[in-house]
Write a structure and sequence with these properties.
This is Oligosaccharide flippase family protein. By secondary structure, the protein is mainly alpha-helical. The protein contains six helices and no strands. α1 crosses α6.
């Protein structure tokens, strides 16, 4: 049964990954043509910096999934509840830490990178990136629990479907409004 779940997880992950790569390439092409080089540079900088902010998680999700595996397989609901509450608390702290570090980085961007200042409302754009990154930790415990229960395909379908929907909306907004803030 575990092998079948693993194969199913792999197939779902592979399909969604390739589809998102193709859709992401199309989105970047539209972004460059509609928004220009300055905003493309800012967006790429922000994307890279938020990736660094995500390092604050430090693999806690993987460690928690491995800790949850045994209680899930044995049906130890008391331990599952305890671990998910602990994980929820840890993710709340991580979310706050990401928000705090993101604000500090935002001021650093504003004062130390001159080319970013050429783009108006750059701090507002950065704030949206940081808030979005911080909020992802509010539901991270759920995906960790599903992953530990060998239901990664469910997590990937939800994440992939959400990402596909967001990219489609971003493409629509770029084509119709040419507005980075709405993007």
């Amino acid at each position: 049964m575990r092998t079948i779940k693993a194969i199913n997880n792999f197939k779902v992950d592979l399909f969604i990954t390739f589809f998102l790569i193709a859709l992401g390439f199309y989105l970047r092409t539209i972004f460059v043509s509609k928004m220009g080089a300055d905003l493309t540079g800012v967006m790429l900088l922000f994307t890279q910096l938020t990736a660094y902010l995500n390092l604050a998680e430090l693999g806690i999700g993987v460690a928690a999934a491995s800790l949850l595996y045994k209680p899930l397989s044995e049906g130890d609901y008391a331990k599952i509840k305890y671990l998910t509450l602990l994980l929820s608390t840890i993710y709340r702290y991580i979310s706050f830490l990401v928000l705090l570090i993101g604000i500090v980085i935002g001021f650093g961007i504003y004062f130390f990178i001159d080319s970013v200042n050429a783009v108006s409302h750059v701090f507002i754009y950065w704030a949206f990136f940081v808030i979005n990154t911080s909020l992802t930790y509010s539901y991270a415990k759920h995906s960790t629990l599903l992953t530990a229960n060998q239901q990664y395909s469910v997590v990937r379908k939800i994440q992939g479907g959400g990402k596909i929907l967001i990219i489609a909306l971003q493409i629509l907004l770029l084509v119709t409004t040419h507005n980075f803030l709405l993007y």
